[in-house]
Give the backbone structure.
Amino acid sequence: MNPPTRLPAAAPRRVRDRLAQAEDGPVRVLHRGPHALYLALAPSRGSGDPGWCVGVVDAVATQVPCALRTPSLASIPGEVASVHDGVLHVDGVALRVGRVLDVTVPSIAGGRAGGPRTDVRVETPQGAPEAWVAELVGAGRGLTPYGDDVLCGWLAIHRAAGVPTPAADAAVRSLLHRTTLLSATLLDCALHGEVLPEFAAWVGALGAPAEPAATAALEAVGHTSGRGLLAGARRGLAELATVVAA
């Protein structure tokens, strides 16, 4: 049986756009696991950013918001990759994006996802977090250090609340060189309110009967990533002075 020359793929809008803007040519393979492949995409022309990590994940892998999703990676060794006319090719297999995914965190600014809330008040947090941002960026081991996961959760919950964090955003962007390219990309995603499905489900379940199950599902992501995201989000909620009415 001949190997496929193309595979169906879905991707978040910014991943699709990054590929569309990428120059034709080879792409460096950063990591290959049984269910996920991570590639180093060069910076967009004139953007001034450090580049981006684009993933290719199957249904078993963690569905990071910087990845193309395809049913299976069994036919892709992940040895060589390139971009041609905005399409990612891995080992000669074209991964053309046919569906755009919504990876935006649900809003809690005016109510829980699915309906308005009258029991929550959100206030702008006091103080600038630059110092603890510097302590967290790149703190930990692996492709996504724990400190970065905490920051991703904190940033994403502020996006959910609709509360700007310009000082923290600037501090994070200035320190992205300290961490892995995948983790820097996930921090960039969090700055844009782009999250894992498990995180989105947890935010959508806040204050609802489904919250304990959503919390357990988020905690189970990765070795420590889910727990880091949860810790950061809970810290953010506390700083946002979420008040449950009696």
Remarks:
- The helical segments are 13-21, 130-136, 146-161, 166-174, 181-191, 197-205, 211-219, 225-239.
- Residues 120-244 form one domain.
